[in-house]
Write a structure and sequence with these properties.
By secondary structure, the protein is of the alpha+beta class. 17% of the residues lie in helices and 31% in strands. It contains 4 helices and 14 strands. The longest helix is centred in the last third of the chain and has 14 residues. About 20% of the residues have low confidence.
Length: 259
Amino acid sequence: MISATKLLFYAAIFASQSTHFIYSFSPTRIAATTTTRRMAVLEQSKVSANCIQSSSTRKTQLYGFIEADSVDEELDPKGGGIGLAMDNAILISGSVDRKGVAVARELEHYSKVIPLDDSNMQDIKVLCKGEGIEIYKDPGDTTIKSITLAPISAVENALMDALQIGLESNEKMYVNFAGGDDLMLHEVLDGVQQMVESLKVSSGGDVQFRSLCEPSFPLEKCGVAAMIVGKKWSNGQVFYNEGKWYTVSEDDLVNAYNE
């Protein structure tokens, strides 16, 4: 037997789809119209305690209620791989395709960065280098926003003193960025493309890029360097930030699966 509650539910649905109707079922009679979309008073001889007693008074029985525990849970702020990103340098490597588009291909974590002195730079031909600062200008009463992104600003500053180049068939050019925890990959990719286009690198040139995000580097700042490296630095892992040069070592490579 269909309960009065189900009958009321079916009648309400039917009412919402009809212009005007009166639906009857003995011994329970339900009436509804779409002009007001409200349920009329349910007339019946006896209604159980779990059913609707009138159009304005309802009783709802709880099913499957789960009561929350009053125990405080301690969450590890560095759990789930967050600590891996917070405590280590993140290196993203990629290349520039024949259309001049930078594509990220590999990500690695290093426990530290290593400063370089002038004696380590003899096998590196620096085409240009520069630094940029991220600036957000208050639009005031206008709706015009003015944002200077650190990687783009770094490229623009570097290009002021750039050397004009022509890559040999056996040469690689690296465009490397280095910044703090707020260094964004999509901004780096835009910066790489801008650098390649401005240096007029031929479509057949071998261009790689590296993006180093190091927690100890200052926020809202970024350094960039375009260079051709010799055999000693064939991995291209040389970075410029705050007027200093850095690299990373395979000995400090962090295996994410062991964290």
